[in-house]
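Students often ask why we bother predicting the structure of a whole assembly rather than each chain alone. The short answer is interfaces. A chain on its own may look different once its partners are present, and contacts between molecules only exist in the joint model. In this exercise we take three input lines together and write out one structure for the complete complex. Read the inputs first and try to guess which parts will touch.
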Amino acid sequence: MEGKDMLSWEQKTLLSELILGLDAAKKLQSRLGEAPATAETDEILVKQIVSTYERSLLLLNWSSSPTTVQLLPTPVTLSPAKNPGGVPESPASINGSPRSEEFVDGGGSSESHHRQDYIFNSKKRKMLPKWSEKVRISPERGLEGPQDDVYSWRKYGQKDILGAKFPRSYYRCTHRSTQNCWATKQVQRSDGDATVFEVTYRGTHTCSQAAITPPQKENTRLKPAITTTTTTTQKPKDLLQSLKSNLTVRTDGLDVDDGKDVFSFPDTPPFYTYGDFSHVESSPPIFDVGDWFNPTVDIDTTFPTFLNESIYY
DNA sequence: CAAATTTGACCTGT
DNA sequence: ACAGGTCAAATTTG
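Now the answer. The structure tokens for the assembled complex follow.
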């Protein structure tokens, strides 16, 4: 939030990457020109150069998606502090394989791509930008936290994570198949603070978000988990040239235990600084989330039933 | 009845 | 072999 350089994260990163690359390149250049220096050094330098430029390229435009692609300079005025994420996702096989087996379907055909497709996608997916943030919920609001855009998510899995007390749930954009939008997110309840969830996004939306979604209620269901909130906001914005790479903010491994729950919430633009992520919000008096989480759980009774009877205000 | 979720099987990278 | 992530059939929800 504090702003010194008003440069966007992308710009900063790109700049430093390019500078590093250039510097390394120059050194190597002089070295090679001089004498047969140590092979090791050269190797290191070369590696650095390569990776640096790779990242730069990725930042600049690592998209080459067949369809979708949204490198259009949206004339939308973005808040200076917030930049809706908009990284086109795609192969970006910079120095990977000069193959052309890159894109699958350019339209929407998908008759029988089976594991091939799966494999391909999983690889591709790994390269998608990733970032995470924490969201806290408040008894009345539902959720609190950076709420900017809201996309429609569809849960496609849940898994227990080793060491974590709560399962992690996986969501993907509802328009995955229809619009080839590969944005996904995973939600994990914080071990420590029951009102905090950590959500990790992967890939940005390439769908015309805010699709036509019937008026939905943002309610809470009576299920062992607060799920669903396929909210959709129609904000004709956000499609752009934001770039980001893989940043992963992570909460340390705290160990607490509880029941389990999940819920989904909106998406938010990624914004952080390279190795600097200090977003510790002042923790206001936390209230109890009462039953929104699990009114009834089917967990072993051996567990402290999550917020079963905590404070009530 | 269509769309979303649940959940165990399956896939892939350490 | 294991853990995390995804698929897909069955089931639930609206």
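Check your guess against this: Chain A is about 20% helix and 10% strand.
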